[in-house]
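User: Here's a structure from my thesis project, written as structure tokens. My advisor, Dr. K., wants to see whether a designed sequence matches the one we expressed. Can you design one independently, without my sequence as a hint?
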């Protein structure tokens, strides 16, 4: 005897070897033996053999007309045997019965299983809807297959127009376009991004890199809603000074300006004037909501995404030719000793006479012309006063760094400007550490340090950037916090970002707090927008730190992208580089770091000639190999030790001089240099340590 039975949701047939009570010992056609309960047996039969029955039943099941079967079935629950008589008539055997079970069980759209051998037909309306859905899926499968074939042939389907960047950045993985793209990419053995580039779905790798960033951080676009700046206080006094700013020619968010006033006793009053959007933006208003969401201006070569709308920036930027709202730090300096004898902070209107630009002054203002008093340029006398003060401030910070166990800051000689026109990039070197750079950076560091102390003295919380060593020796860890603490890398007792309120939300928050101190004095703690231990202030710190890091990573990635573009654009087949440490080298013509496998052991500064084998803008990878060693540096033993300690410190930090302020450049180098020195020169690479971001060489 044979039985047809259900096991684990599927149907089988086998020969009965024995029976004990309600259990059968069954041998399946393949030789496997199984114990089958009687309640799982649907059909008992003698002929045909078990294997033959399954084959014949499978064939017969496919011949059963489902629509007709559904018509024959009763509306109520029924046993399959009852429907067998209705469908097959009086003559049907085990093959027909098994075929019917297989057909019923395999057609859940038409019939619903209610138990062993029990079924109920689907209601007519539900059946129509289900069949329509199946037809849609069938049609979609055909379309998907067509898309897949076109993509594998290197042709972009018309339906993909305008969708490709979305498919690569924020895809609907159930969409047939996405499924076709994934399948075609797998068939061709490439990434979906590479496939879309090959098919012309994306205009360039640059477009994809930008789209990925925007999809993550600006999913609703980079535009701004309409906003209105609140009225400025009508009692702001007008300062009796004429200020000037020093920025790159492309800068539109002019945060800082300076003034020099000669006093009767031979001393000078120097003003550091910071744009004051906090005078017109209120915590919680529409503009604050925008700034709180963005947290910072995003910089990238050739472009930027501002934190504040242009209309708001225009109200507060320190553009020349008018009185502008400012938060001013005035310091009185003894010109003989360059000592600061007093300071004062005011909220006021400042007349900005000139916006000076590095591009026009760098050749005119240098150490030699300042020492000789030669040259003709705006605010020459003021710059001559600020230059020795900046030098004194720098030296004072180096003494403080030494007290923290750090060496002098290492200044890199060259920065680079990126100018992008369409898909063409121009990368130009610019001297780093010029007198103008030092003036701007030292006065900004002074303001941030002084105002950090100002907040602390008024017991008003602020957002500080600290760098301290933990253990001796130990790494200098940089963190943001709401209480004052030393920044050992910069050599200051405290450091509160306050000088870039148009481009950094932290600075805007600190400016609100500073204004409370200026306007309310001893009661500032009660009037400040953020009170001590304010949970929202902690949230700002955490959110800003994460976002600012992500923005910086994107800027660095795009700088490396444009470096690779420059190599391809200039058709550079061979390049000269200098060894940084290990297999890491830095190209001489552009700020690109590369790992060179098999480079060997060379002293830092050794110049090598590399063969550029391939460039990949999509993955931001460069394949290079060593051709030969050009020359090795000559250093004393003490210099060699310094080189080793600084090998991966601040002077390898990649900063686009076009976008970064002198303050942020100096701060970045001081922090990286401090971290490397604290770690004995064995810290992570200043470029972030990510091989892809370093323009991986393979």
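Assistant: Designed independently from the structure alone:
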């Amino acid at each position: 005897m044979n039985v047809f039975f259900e096991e684990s949701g599927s149907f089988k047939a086998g020969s009965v070897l024995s029976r004990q009570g309600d259990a059968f010992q069954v041998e399946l056609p393949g030789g496997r033996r199984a114990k089958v309960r009687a309640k799982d047996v649907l059909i008992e039969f003698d002929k045909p053999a078990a294997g033959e029955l399954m084959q014949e039943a499978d064939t017969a099941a496919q011949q059963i007309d489902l629509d007709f079967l559904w018509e024959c079935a009763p509306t109520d629950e029924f046993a399959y045997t009852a429907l067998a008589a209705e469908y097959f008539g009086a003559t049907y055997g085990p093959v027909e019965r098994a075929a019917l079970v297989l057909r019923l069980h395999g057609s859940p759209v038409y019939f619903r299983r209610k138990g062993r051998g029990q079924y109920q037909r689907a209601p007519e309306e539900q059946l129509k809807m289900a069949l329509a859905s199946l037809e849609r899926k069938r049609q979609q499968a055909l379309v998907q297959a067509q898309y897949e074939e076109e993509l594998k042939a290197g042709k972009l389907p018309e339906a993909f127009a305008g969708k490709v960047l979305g498919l690569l950045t924020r895809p609907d993985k159930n969409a047939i376009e996405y499924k076709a793209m994934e399948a075609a990419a797998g068939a061709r053995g490439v990434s979906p991004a590479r496939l879309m580039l090959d098919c012309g779905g994306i205009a360039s790798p640059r477009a994809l890199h930008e789209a990925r960033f925007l999809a993550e951080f600006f999913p609703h676009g980079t535009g701004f809603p309409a906003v209105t700046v609140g009225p400025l206080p009508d009692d702001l006094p007008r300062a009796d000074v004429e200020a000037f700013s020093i920025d790159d020619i492309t800068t539109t968010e002019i945060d800082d300006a300076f003034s020099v006033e000669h006093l009767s006793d031979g001393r000078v009053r120097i003003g550091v004037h910071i744009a004051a959007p906090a005078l017109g933006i209120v915590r919680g208003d529409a503009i604050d909501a925008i700034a709180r969401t963005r947290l910072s201006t995003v910089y990238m070569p050739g472009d930027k995404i501002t934190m504040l709308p242009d209309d708001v920036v225009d109200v507060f930027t320190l553009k020349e030719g008018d009185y502008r709202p400012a938060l001013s730090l005035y310091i009185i300096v003894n010109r003989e000793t360059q000592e600061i004898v007093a300071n004062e902070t005011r909220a006021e209107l400042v007349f900005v006479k000139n916006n000076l630009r590095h591009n026009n002054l760098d050749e005119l203002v240098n150490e030699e012309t300042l020492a000789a008093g030669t040259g003709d340029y705006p605010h020459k006398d003021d710059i001559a006063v600020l230059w020795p003060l900046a030098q004194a401030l720098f030296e004072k910070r180096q003494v403080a760094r030494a007290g923290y166990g750090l060496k002098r800051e290492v200044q890199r000689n060259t920065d680079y400007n990126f100018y992008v026109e369409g898909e063409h990039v121009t990368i130009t070197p610019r001297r780093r550490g010029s007198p103008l750079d030092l003036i701007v950076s030292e006065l900004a560091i002074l303001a941030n340090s002084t105002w950090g102390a100002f907040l602390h003295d008024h017991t008003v919380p602020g957002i500080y950037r600290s760098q301290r060593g933990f253990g001796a020796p130990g790494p200098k860890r940089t963190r943001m916090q709401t209480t004052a603490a030393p920044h050992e890398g910069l050599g200051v007792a405290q450091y509160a970002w306050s000088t870039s309120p148009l481009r950094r939300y932290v600075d805007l928050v600190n400016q609100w707090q500073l204004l409370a101190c200026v306007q309310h004095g001893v009661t500032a703690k009660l009037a400040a927008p953020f009170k001590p231990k304010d949970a929202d202030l902690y949230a700002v710190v955490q959110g800003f730190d994460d976002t600012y890091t992500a923005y910086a990573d994107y800027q660095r990635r795009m700088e490396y992208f444009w470096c690779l573009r420059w190599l391809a654009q200039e058709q550079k087949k061979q390049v000269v580089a200098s060894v940084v440490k290990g297999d890491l080298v830095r190209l001489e013509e552009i700020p690109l770091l590369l790992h060179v496998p098999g480079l060997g052991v060379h002293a830092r500064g050794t110049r090598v000639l590399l063969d550029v084998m391939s460039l990949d803008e999509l993955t931001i990878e460069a394949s290079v190999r060593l051709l030969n060693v050009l020359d090795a540096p000559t250093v004393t033993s003490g210099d060699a030790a310094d080189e080793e300690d600084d090998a991966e410190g601040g002077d390898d930090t990649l900063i686009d001089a076009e976008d970064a302020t002198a303050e942020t450049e100096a701060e970045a180098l001081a922090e990286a240099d401090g971290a490397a020195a604290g770690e004995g020169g064995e810290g992570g690479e200043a470029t972030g340590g990510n091989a892809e971001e370093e323009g991986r060489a393979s």
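When you compare it with your expressed construct, this may help: The longest strand covers residues 339-357.
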